[in-house]
Amino acid sequence: MKLFQAVWVATIGVSLLALPAPSSAGFGEPPDSFRGYLLNRADEDYGYLRDPALNTDIWDPVKYLPFNRTGSWYLSLGGEARERYEYFNHPNWGKDPQDSGYLLQRYFLHGDLRMGENLRIFSQFQSSLENGRRGGPRPTDRDELDLHQAFLDLKLDLSDAASLTLRSGRQELAYGSQRLVSVREGPNVRQSFDGFRLMYRTGEFRIDGFAAKPVQTNRYAFDDGTDNAKALWGAYGVLPFPLLPQGNLDVYYMGVYRGKAGFDQGTARETRHSLGARLWRTAAPLDYNFEAIYQWGSFGTGAIQAWTVASDTGYTLSSLPLRPRFGLRADIASGDDAPATHDLETFNPLFPKGAYFSEAGLIGPANFIDLNPCIDLHLADHLALIFDWDFFWRESTHDGLYNNAVALVRSGKTSAARYIGSMSQGQLLWDIDRHLSFVAIYGHFFAGSFLKESGPGEDVDYLTTWLTYKF
């Protein structure tokens, strides 16, 4: 890790000696004038700024700092600041201490060094802070300062349209709907991995192979090592699906190892394999996202057999005022049917996004049935209001309730009730400009019979709002 830090500092120093930008035509495609930055900042490419005529944004002077007269060697700098407030009334349905609200802060700074078309070094620092939370920070609330990403890309051009890239080092991974592997954007500390990724690209066909271990989330400066008790490996492919208009198909395999995995049944060593497929379309008026996953493997001396099916379908009426989108999400994931045996049927979402059902993170994607109608209203081009109501049941009444980190929060051994409860929610999303965005969310969780019978079953009020600036 110290080597990657030294390289990043060195690239900053070299940038001070950068030559003036050439006046020749640029390469790459400039972004839309209002388009936001990408989820993983490592996916951005500012090579188009070789053309001085495309230098129109206030931050463009630091997005392209050339080293040579042709402009093929250059450094790009960027960052992010997010200021967030959260408030819970009756957190964990009254089981945790009453919380009056707290502040979460997150900062990123990155450098992207491109040495021609085939060699690249990217590094990114993260600082995540928490203030005022009763009971102290949660595991994903505080990480004072650490190296979040630091990797080397070696690219091989196989033809005019095909390339193969080997990425080695610390990096973010996110695939599909992020049901199994995510950057964990909602919580204050994002997830990264130490390992290798091989990426093949040709036209609209993409396939990745990867082998990595998650990075630990520790609270202090430069103490996030590799979590050697866990491992992730697999392959993920994306291709067009011509049988459906504008349809796309993802197919993938993922394997995970956890030296100490905990479920309602108990704790044991876990080796799990996941085979999945996703059919999706984003174009209006009809958008959809269907995904099915089957899992097998071993849990201690027992066998694993688990599954999930998820759907998200929407229809946009562009001719009506506010261009409403009416949507329905329906999901189900298996739970353990016989906890007294060694076999395990609980679905494991591996490394899911922290805000799976909502930013409150009360319920995670294991042993559940979910039905979620929603409506999106577009108040303006970059201002949206979303209302939804989510209903939850346990898939197996013999298994417990898990949170967004797939940690057991309520055992299923004290209640035979299936209904968990429901959560109504309103969200305001405003992209003020390319750099600045604002979000405000309020939700109320109505506790159901299972929560009331298995422990404190208070209703939960949740409020969060944040302001993000990126460059």
TrEMBL record:
Secretion signal span: 1-25
Alginate export domain location: 74-456
Keywords: Signal
The keyword Transcription is annotated on this UniProt entry: no
Protein name as catalogued: Alginate export family protein
UniProt xrefs under InterPro entries: Alginate_export_dom, Alginate_Permeability_Chnl
